[in-house]
Specification:
By secondary structure, the protein is α/β, with parallel strands linked by helices. The chain contains 10 helices and 14 strands. It is 40% helix and 20% strand. The structure holds adenosine-5-diphosphoribose.
């Protein structure tokens, strides 16, 4: 819903969590210039400071978005400035430390996300919710349950990032431009993700005709461990440049009603033989959120891998006792 604030009719995007990914996402979306951004965090002054700093880059970069920061309390108070957001992106939570799996984060982030979603929904009952906090498939399912929203308005980011990592490694290997690789990585955002080499093309040529099966397997393995590779380098945090780029791409798709076909964590009701679960699949993303689940014709092996990935996600949902 567009807001009218001092005659401004731009759509509002609220970003919950002003950490590495939230702040970086705010920067990307603000620089696109067509929506206002509200950034929040529970750490006193963090969101205000980053928002003001970002706003002060506007005259240099040349964008016209208003960027506001607000400190909220962990019990969910202070969300008024997020009211009537068209899109809310949730990055709040604890990132992975070295040696920690995404699933270890489950219990900690379940508590955070429950309170955050309740507060967001109270002030923006018509928004599209985009989840990033890990383990993202489980957190998206949790947000769906807590929000009471229709499933099309709750979507998670995972597949765009996983696919971008896969494309990056392929482009570097093949010496072609990154954007000339066409590929999708489906499934849960974890060790069971499902890259689809048979559906991968490089400037129109099939990947399987360009690289040996062994080399493709090595690249798939690196993709699976892509998040871990970054965590090992950073030691005190996890990836945020590519995740924020993925979130900004989803924001563009929704705010500009682009009808992009993107791999996202979406609610399946029988598609791919999976029912009542959020899993990474190609979707059409537009102003209404997930406007269509796109069903690829998968081989028996690919379908089996996707269902195994879904089983792993279901294990997390069971652990949350949703
Ligand atoms: N409300 C708002 N913000 C919160 C809350 C809360 N209840 N709880 C924590 N936060 C804030 C933290 O204060 C921190 O600033 O969320 C921010 C998270 O930022 P980082 O620690 O820098 O983590 P980041 O790298 O951005 O990752 C965020 O995305 O990729 C996933 O696994 C990652 O779950 C993690 C999330």
């Amino acid at each position: 819903m567009p807001i009218e604030e001092n005659n401004r009719v731009r759509k509002k995007v609220s970003i919950i969590g002003a950490g590495q990914t939230g702040a970086s996402t705010a920067q990307r979306i603000a620089q696109h210039g067509y929506s206002d951004v509200v950034l929040t965090d529970v750490v006193e002054g963090l969101a205000e400071g980053k928002a003001l700093d970002l706003q002060e880059s506007a005259p240099i970069v040349g964008f016209d978005a208003r960027v506001t920061g607000v400190t909220t309390s962990p019990d969910g108070a202070g969300y008024e400035p997020t009211a009537n957001s068209y899109l809310v992106i949730i990055t709040s939570g604890v990132p992975r430390k070295p040696g920690m799996s995404r699933d270890d984060l489950l219990a900690i982030n379940q508590k955070v996300i429950t309170t955050v979603v309740q507060s967001v929904v109270r002030h923006s009952p018509n928004c599209v919710l985009v989840m990033l906090t890990n383990p993202v498939d489980a957190m998206t399912q949790l947000a769906y349950r807590v929000s009471g929203f229709p499933s099309n308005r709750v979507v998670g980011q995972a597949g765009i990032l996983d696919t971008a990592r896969y494309k990056t490694f392929l482009a570097l290997e093949l010496g072609v431009a990154f954007q000339d690789i066409d590929a999708y990585v489906l499934g849960g955002h974890g060790d069971t993700m499902v890259p689809l080499p048979d559906h991968t093309t490089v400037g129109g040529r099939k990947l399987t005709a360009l690289l040996s099966p062994d080399r493709i397997d090595q690249i798939i393995e690196r993709t699976r461990r892509g998040g871990e590779e970054i965590v090992k380098y950073l030691k005190t945090g996890s990836a945020f440049y590519a995740p924020s780029a993925a979130l900004a791409e989803m924001a563009d798709a929704v705010l500009l009603d682009q009808k992009r076909v993107l791999p996202c964590c979406a609610y399946l009701e029988g598609q791919y033989g999976i029912n009542g679960l959020y899993v990474g699949v190609p979707v059409k993303l537009g102003a209404g959120g997930v406007e269509e689940i796109i069903e690829f014709a998968l081989s028996t092996d690919e379908l089996g891998a996707l269902r195994r990935s879904a089983d792993a996600v279901r294990g997390l949902i069971d652990a949350m006792k949703l």
